[in-house]
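Re: that chain you flagged

S.,

Sorry for the slow reply, it's been a week of failed gels. I finally had a moment to sit down with the sequence you sent. For the record, here it is as I used it:
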Amino acid sequence: MEQEAWRILIVEDDQRLADLTREYLEGNGLQVAIESDGGQAVARILKERPDLVVLDLMLPGEDGLSICRKLRGQYEGPILMLTARTDDMDQILGLELGADDYVCKPVRPRVLLARIRALLRRTEAVAEAPVAENQRRLEFGPLVIDNAMREAWLSERSIELTSAEFDLLWLLAVNAGRILSREEIFNSLRGIEYDGQDRSIDVRISRIRPKIGDDPMHPRLIKTVRSKGYLFVREAAEGLV
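Prediction finished late last night. Pasting the structure tokens below so you have them in one place:
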């Protein structure tokens, strides 16, 4: 997929902000459309299937969190949410509902462009990169993670994971037995440097744990190693029942 073909839909009711953002992104080689009505956003996204959605939280008709909730399971592209700078709960809720990333308002165009490109590069790499035979499927007792199909199962039951959650689970599992720092995880998944404050990795870990049979209060499969990062424990996974 050529960068010139990347199609972005901005769901934003602030027309001036949306127009300025579109002008900047189009000046950097992206194709951009705007939707100002939250009530029309889901239908338009599912019809047009843009490569990425920039989704504001506060919208007329339907808010961004509700839109994100409806899209996940039907739309496979990345969702980048625009959130209030001081409201951590918006960021956490957005990530829990399946958003792939967020940018705080007021929007800095260069930051937004960098985040968009990082998400699109990751999506493109997943779609086009060949998968080595021994890196296609991992099995830990009843837990099976298939990188080619981008699916996971626990005791033969499919695990519902967002695209970002699957990427994180695969990264941890393929490095089973090795501690991955937040910096390493962040750089591998997002392609940009960790700023020391982003909580998206922690939120996704907390969502993944119960889905793979781990105890969120006393995790044994994905362990938090104080001051170091996260560790996927092969033996604990293989001992799942």
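What I noticed first: Residues 69 and 97 are 6 Å apart (CA to CA).

Talk soon,
D.
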